[in-house]
Amino acid sequence: MNKTVGFIGLGVMGNSMAAHILEAGYPVLVYTRTKQKAEEILNKGAVWQETVKDLSEKADIIITMVGYPSDVEEIYLGENGILRHAKEGAFVIDMTTSKPSLAKKIAEKAKEKSIHALDAPVSGGDIGARNGTLAIMAGGEKEAFEACLPLFSVMGENIQYQGPAGSGQHTKMCNQIAIAAGMVGVAEAMAYAEKSGLNPEQVLKSITTGAAGSWSLSNLAPRMLKGDFAPGFYVKHFIKDMGIALEEAELMGEEMPGLALAKSLYDKLSAQGEENSGTQSIYKLWVK
Amino acid sequence: MNKTVGFIGLGVMGNSMAAHILEAGYPVLVYTRTKQKAEEILNKGAVWQETVKDLSEKADIIITMVGYPSDVEEIYLGENGILRHAKEGAFVIDMTTSKPSLAKKIAEKAKEKSIHALDAPVSGGDIGARNGTLAIMAGGEKEAFEACLPLFSVMGENIQYQGPAGSGQHTKMCNQIAIAAGMVGVAEAMAYAEKSGLNPEQVLKSITTGAAGSWSLSNLAPRMLKGDFAPGFYVKHFIKDMGIALEEAELMGEEMPGLALAKSLYDKLSAQGEENSGTQSIYKLWVK
């Protein structure tokens, strides 16, 4: 019989991920701060839990997909949190993009209670979550990772074990760092195209297939040019991620001037009221 | 009968490009500063010219692929240069990455002498040149572009007309701008992976296929990790290109902080003796 999965956090990503688990035949218990967001998944057969505590006491595997490290900390380590109430031998998987140091702390506390903890953030956005094609980068004990692989396979395609607790989060930081300065380059290239009197769409035909090519250039530059700033990935979440990466880099004694520049530009953008826009809205710093 | 093509500048790129033209059946005249570099192409049947003047007087189409804007200026506008000696009705095509403003100036002077000028820089590097798969981004009069299309097709695959004189160079600047900040992001991501104790090769398996994916991440990050800093594209040439782009951006009144940061990091790298290394050597600023 399939193990019971408890899913906490039903935003755009969480809803799609939980639906895949349900469709794969697992019994699914759900909890999220705003019950309304659970409506769809409850209609599909998930069972509502009134508290994190209730869910934790019943589930064999608990997945969290929430907003900020502070949420992760409260849900795992708080008075009514997961580690206090989960069953011995349970698996707990944080798929939120969160702090590597927090992931390590959770893993240590979990171990004391014979609970197996993994940090397994994802990339691929709402579309990847909907299509079950997320990239999943996991940290924790290898045996725990392998035990959870069937469940990961339901949600993602590129599933990689990256090392001990915190390694999933560190890997996600690498992902965000590569994106950060890259977005600045894409926006500047498009601004230059526009200001120099070129046809930016025509420019994209020349530059997307070669050495300047990137996911951002192919997928986000066209949205910049069309003035489509709807969120695939929110400015506010990107700022959170870059903040974590900068903190961690500082702990390592590393300077990250590209990352620092990108964060400062996104902070400026957010201050202009774009925190709920998509990351491609950085283009507005050049072209209104 | 095929028109006679004069090719000036036989570096790594020029040699491959001229060879494709020769193989396509055009008579090819060549000139380059260091005659030794012409040896291979002369063995294949190209005909040596002692001066730019000699070549210009005989060729129907003249292609230049030299180093710096100062070289372009001298070769086109100098006393013994192309525009002074080329035949009426000739086509002259500068494929060097050079200044948009210089391309415009050349086009104007050419027009006065009933010579058709195009600026048509390329991307795709030594491999693209060798395989005849360059991206060619062209500026100038549309009719001249169309007349030269069969010749472009011999050297490249993604051939795009971008607008009036200077538009090819402007498009190439967009290409370099997108690469510039992107390289910083790739190097920082790899440095973070290394310093946080991850296995960077394993990290690449997680992040190259998603939203962080780019040509640089797929092709240059593995070289960074292997310590392979051999030039695909020289640091010194990238610095030249970024310098042109920054100058042009300033003329437009645009700030390009990502580009400026990338250039300052590459300047630093160059000062450390890496000017003849490949652009992936930027990694050395983080990991020795």
TrEMBL record, chains A, B:
Keyword annotations for this protein, in alphabetical order, are: NAD, Oxidoreductase
Q: For this chain's UniProt record, which GO biological process terms are given?
A: organic acid catabolic process
The 6-phosphogluconate dehydrogenase NADP-binding domain is annotated at 4-163
Gene3D superfamilies with a match to the protein in the record: N-(1-d-carboxylethyl)-l-norvaline Dehydrogenase, domain 2, NAD(P)-binding Rossmann-like Domain
User: Which EC class heads this enzyme's classification?
Assistant: oxidoreductase
Q: Which PROSITE patterns match?
A: 3_HYDROXYISOBUT_DH
Does the keyword Plastid feature in the UniProt annotation?
Answer: no
What terms describe the molecular function in GO for this protein?
A: NAD binding; NADP binding; oxidoreductase activity
Return the EC number.
1.1.1.-
Task: Name the source's superkingdom.
Answer: Bacteria
InterPro entries from the entry? 3-OH-isobutyrate_DH-rel_CS, 6-PGluconate_DH-like_C_sf, 6PGD_dom2, 6PGDH_NADP-bd, HIBADH-like_NADP-bd, HIBADH-related, NAD(P)-bd_dom_sf
Q: Which residues form the active site?
A: 172
Against Pfam families, the record matches this protein to: NAD_binding_11, NAD_binding_2
Q: What are the 3-hydroxyisobutyrate dehydrogenase-like NAD-binding domain coordinates in residue numbering? A: 166-285
Please report which protein family the annotation says this sequence is part of.
Belongs to the HIBADH-related family.
Can you say what this protein is called? Beta-hydroxyacid dehydrogenase
What is the native source organism of this protein?
Bacillus amyloliquefaciens (strain ATCC 23350 / DSM 7 / BCRC 11601 / CCUG 28519 / NBRC 15535 / NRRL B-14393 / F)
